[in-house]
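Annex B. Sample input.
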Amino acid sequence: MENGRRDFFQKSTIAAAGLMAMGGGANAADESHASEHYHGPHEMISGLTLLCIRHKDGAETLGVKTDAGILDVRAAAHGLKMAAPLCLDELLQKGNAAGLKAVITAAQSHKAYYVNESDIGYGRLLQNPGKIICVGLNYRNHAKEIGMQPPRVPPIFNKYNNALAPHQCVITLPPKELSVKMDYETEMLIVMGKRAWNVSEADALNYVAGYCTAQDFSARDLQLELPNSQWMIGKTLDNFAPIGPYFVSADIAGDPNVMSVETWVNGELRQSSNTNDFICNTQQMIAYISKHFPLQPGDIIFTGTPEGVILGKPKDKQVWLKAGDKIESKVGNLGTLKFSLA
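Annex B, continued. Sample output.
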């Protein structure tokens, strides 16, 4: 198994793009108020904390966290007859930040468009990113706990869109004959805001729209015990990428290289670290990846997990996750992501 890990980290240099798109967003009745025909300037998001509301009709649409409550963007755009992006992917990829802010401003005097966060169901914060890129082995102390040397360049792998899942989701574990070694990995997620192609480290953060709390949930036996280290297989089963509850724009998120990273399992603290233990910091990851292929608005990057995972424990103390377990992940001021297993 150790040889398989070493082979992966030595050979892995670029990620495959996410190919399996999942639908989402507003229903047909609201298309006239969406920004599908927006052709204005591509603008970066600023000053906002966003989430996704799952409606009774199954639509998953944008919400804005405000002091007055959660602004239901779909309801406001429809009621005010204004064009606005109705999901985060659309906002990021088309860049109509001005349209969203116009709706936010216009809705301030309309209490009917606000809901209590405790009353909403959460949808997938990101539903159709072009690429889901993951950086492995990116914390110094995590490398130590699994007995590996820090990599010379960021090891890259990928997840697919079927893995995307919301805050408060339930992950249905695979059949035991397929996999039994489930593990958590709390990670800071980078969300790209504009096209980055061969960018410098000095300029890299200017391309970031914001950040989220995320989980690179992993089936370790599929990842490491199949022939040739099947990393993608072990990382991209359905709902293996919960993200949320919030997207926080880069200008208010804080320094991505000094954020706390914590995990609780059934109330027990399992991971407690900080992104200042990154081997490759945020700028270095973006610059390195963008040298191999362009990063587009809405692409997302999982940045690795710190020490404290089950895999890092001695074999006789590895108690893998099971149905009924409840996991909480917190990164900096990005919100606490919660999900459970069944």
